[in-house]
């Protein structure tokens, strides 16, 4: 662990470092003023703005120094990003209550009075470093927990079978995109897609083959939508939805037609399909207009269009 000694006296620095080095603390950095110490700290901090880590585990701070005194230095250091938890021990000749109070108020954790006792110094250093160790451990655990939460968050919004977004994520995203489109007067379209005669497919080829077919269709949809804000989701059993922000009716229709064609071109055999010999999908497109007041209405319109596609022979797109 790294100890930073800040003292304007060459002799004091030498005595302190000798004692510490003689007792197994071999990572000692010495600075002769608060200004140099602060420069050193700033130069040795790394990490993101919200999670700065600094290569200093303990500071031994002289009380009386020219220019910036020890107590003021404590206060300045405590205000540096990432320095809130680094233990600071004041090494001071002044022991009146007022000075000690000021030191603690400025952020010091402990103090040693000059001339100091070697054993007392080592005991206080050990205690401060133990404290720092516990703080570091707690921070590591917090970091791990944050990571884990992020992963859980991701997992809870993904459909386990197909890997596209699940219904929950879809609902959340549509709510956000709907509000954004209304607020900014932007276009917004959605596509609903449903596999044709999928019950018969399962009955003919088995549930496992049905699952594989769902995966392939999800992947076709995913390959088509390319813009960062677009979202493909599994809406339910064999139904998918696509959210297309900033996309008008014609744009959404083009994407739906491409999806229809690409699924057909997979040429997944489906002998019981009454459309043809392969798996196909039917699609419905809806686009935000002044008549649509809620996202539920937008969905309903897509569902109605999809129903039109089913009624008019399947393997087609309606808007
Ligand atoms: P239509 O062309 O009118 O859409 O007919 P359909 O048979 O596709 O529609 P229906 O709603 O009657 O049947 C949907 C089928 O989708 C029934 C169900 O077994 C199947 N299905 C739903 N979820 C899954 C799934 O996760 N895996 C598999 N293998 N099949 C599923
Ligand atoms: Mg001094
Ligand atoms: Mg269905
Ligand atoms: Mg179906």
UniProtKB/TrEMBL annotation:
Keyword field: Phosphoprotein
Pfam families given in the database record: GGDEF, Response_reg
Phosphoprotein in keyword set: yes
Signal peptide interval: none
Domain GGDEF: 186-319
Gene Ontology CC terms: plasma membrane
Residues modified to 4-aspartylphosphate: 62
PANTHER family for the chain: DIGUANYLATE CYCLASE DGCM-RELATED, REGULATORY COMPONENTS OF SENSORY TRANSDUCTION SYSTEM
Name of the protein described by the UniProt record: Diguanylate cyclase response regulator
Organism expressing this protein natively: Desulfuribacillus alkaliarsenatis
């Amino acid at each position: 662990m790294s100890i930073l000694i800040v003292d304007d006296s060459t002799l004091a620095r030498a005595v302190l470092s000798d004692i510490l080095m003689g007792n197994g603390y071999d990572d000692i950095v010495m600075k002769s003023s608060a200004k140099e110490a602060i420069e050193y700290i700033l130069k040795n901090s790394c990490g993101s703005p919200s999670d700065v880590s600094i290569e200093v585990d303990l500071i031994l701070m002289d009380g009386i120094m020219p220019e910036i005194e020890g107590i003021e230095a404590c206060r300045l250091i405590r205000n540096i990003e990432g320095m809130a938890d680094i233990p600071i021990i004041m090494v001071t000749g002044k022991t009146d209550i007022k000075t000690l109070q000021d030191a603690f108020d400025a952020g010091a954790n402990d103090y040693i009075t000059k001339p100091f006792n070697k054993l007392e110094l080592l005991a206080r250093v050990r205690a401060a470093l133990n404290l720092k160790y516990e703080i570091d451990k707690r921070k590591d655990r917090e970091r791990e927990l944050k990571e884990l939460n992020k992963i859980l968050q991701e997992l809870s919004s993904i459909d386990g079978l197909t890997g596209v977004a699940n219904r929950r994520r879809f609902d959340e995203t549509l709510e956000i995109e709907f509000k954004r489109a209304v607020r900014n007067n932007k276009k917004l379209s959605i596509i609903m897609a449903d596999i044709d005669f999928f019950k018969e497919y399962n009955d003919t080829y088995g549930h496992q083959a049905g699952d594989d077919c769902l995966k392939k269709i999800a992947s076709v949809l995913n390959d088509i939508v390319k813009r960062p804000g677009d979202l493909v989701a599994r809406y339910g059993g064999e139904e998918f939805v696509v959210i297309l922000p900033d996309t008008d009716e014609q744009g959404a229709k083009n994407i739906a037609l491409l999806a229809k064609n690409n699924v057909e071109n997979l040429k997944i055999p489906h002998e019981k399909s009454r459309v043809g010999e392969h798996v196909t999908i039917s699609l419905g497109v809806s686009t935000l207009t002044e008549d649509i007041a809620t996202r539920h209405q937008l969905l309903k319109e897509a569902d109605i269009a999809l129903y039109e596609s089913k009624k008019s022979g399947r393997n087609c797109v309606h808007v």
